[in-house]
Amino acid sequence: MDRVALRGLKARGHHGVFPREREEGQTFIVDLVLGLDTRPAAADDDLAKTVHYGLVAEEVVAIVEGDPVDLIETLAERISAACLKFDGVEEVEVVVHKPDAPITVPFDDVTITIRRSRT
Question: Which active-site residues does the annotation give?
Answer without folding.
Answer: 98
